[in-house]
Amino acid sequence: MNTKQKLPWAFILITFAFTWLILLPGVLASRGLFELPLPVYALAAIAQFGPSLTAFILTWRQEGKDGAGQLFKRALNFRIPWPWLILIFIVPIAVNGLALLFHRWAGGSLPEMPYLSQPAAILPSFFFILLLQGPLPEEFGWRGYLLDRLQLKWNALAASLVLGVIWWLWHLPAAFMDGVAQSYFPQAAYLIWCMAVSVLFTWMYNH
Fold first, then answer.
1. Are 169 and 178 in contact (CB under 8 A)?
2. Burial of 96 (0-12, 13-18, 19+ CB in 10 A)
3. How many CA atoms lie within 13 A of 111 on its CB side?
């Protein structure tokens, strides 16, 4: 059995340890048990690099420098068929749009949308989010490392749902930190969201 066929417990344990230990002072500060010398969102910004850092460390250890280089190069794949590129951009917009419509239909009020009045801010915000708010800090780990190994053991749907639960658990300390986005989410709904998005991401990733 090669390293990819084994359940990636080392990746899960190291990723959780890195992120949770960094977030712990923020959780304690939010409970009034610790005086934090920096904003909680600064801790969250550092902690979210756990999955990608762990993926590169373990890939380097298991497959050497060339393996780590190949993992990085996967983010520079420009040979994606154009129909899938269109889907990658359209699906998130469509899903969020439907969510807003459903929320409005259910009696909720629409949130402020400042980017519609400041379109010049959209592109800089896109790169800020890409590099520092999830995709780059996390996705080398979740989809680049963990998903491939889960799919060697289970089918795409089962692997996606397992990854969704792991992804939700990894975010859980942030739910107890004042001022962090996850602290505003009902956790049952957030778990469902993580699992649903994992299925969607796996479908696009595999194609």
1. no
2. exposed
3. 8
Other Cβ atoms closer than 10 A to 206: 12
Residue 104 CA neighbour count, 13 Å, CB half = 8
DSSP state of 3: G
Instruction: Judge whether residue 17 has pLDDT over 80.
Output: yes
Distances (CA, A) of 68 to 7, 100, 139, 144: 19, 40, 14, 11
Q: What is the mean pLDDT of residues 32-50?
A: 84
Q: What is the dihedral of CA 147, 150, 152, 157, to 10 degrees?
A: -80
Tokens of 143: 């989809």
pLDDT score of 115: 65
